[in-house]
Amino acid sequence: MSVVIGHDAIHANVSHLPPGQTAGYTTGSADIRWTAADWHAHPKGVRICQDSGSDHDADVLDVERGAAANADACRWYPAAKAAFKAAARPGQRHPAVYTSASNVTPLVNALIAARITAGVGLWVANWDLGNAQAVAEVQNAAGPFPIVGVQYDNGPFYDTNVFSTGWLGDVSQAGPHKHATQAGDTVAGLAASRNMDPDTWLALQAKLGADVRALGSGPLKAGITWLSVNP
User: Residue 133: which CATH number?
Assistant: First the structure.
């Protein structure tokens, strides 16, 4: 599984964000909540709901002190999942929950008690990890509640994270975009063009309704249709 480094910040610190993948807040006080101009400058930023779960179109619910609680996550996830499936906001990622490493077990137990037994991605904050350990946590993610991100550094203006590129790229959309292979294309090459690993890309093709058998794994013939959720 491929990963990418990303940084998250409140509105007051958006100007300090490095280039690349970002994350910001759709709710919260004026110093926290990103403005339309912030989102325009970072159109692919991960969208975080910082309150008790009012934004069902967000990518992530923030579960920590002063934000949402585990019980809020149990109510937010089904609504956010429905919004994702309906493409209520094209570009929404499959719903995930941000929480500390110490709260992962209580959160998962609460979800299971609410009959949510799989599907919730976890963005885990653990500032005791280094970059290599954070990368490994995401790359080795498995199970019904996979880790899609790890926040491993808390800086003065922004935090630093490792995100799964598969999770980042699996976004809701009104309808998939069609592409045609060129002679000599490979699954690895097409996956890399979308910043995804081959297995994740093929899984997305199956989800979108492409003919995965025709895509195969070797050099491809010209004219085979493949699909994407971004142009």
Answer: 3.20.20.80
Local structure of 186: helix, strand or coil: coil
| Cα dihedral 83, 123, 120, 204 in deg (nearest 10) | 70
Residues spanned by the domain of 185: 177-228
pLDDT tens per residue, range 104-143:
999 999 999 999 999 999 999 999 999 999 999 999 999 9
Domain boundary among the residues 169, 185, 213 is at 169
Pair of tokens at residue 67: 């934000």
Per DSSP, the chain holds a count of helices (H) and strands (E) of 8, 10
Identify which of 99, 124, 105, 111 has the alpha carbon closest to the alpha carbon of residue 75.
Answer: 111
Q: What is the CA 120 to chain-centroid distance, rounded?
A: 11
> Do 191 and 148 sit in the same domain of this protein?
no
d(C-alpha 214, C-alpha 34), whole Å: 43
Q: How many residues comprise the chain?
A: 231
Q: What pLDDT, in 10s, does the model give residues 179-210?
A: 999 888 999 989 888 778 888 889 889 988 89
pTM given for the model: 0.77
Phi, psi (deg, nearest 5) at residue 60: -140, 140
> Amino acid letter at 117?
T
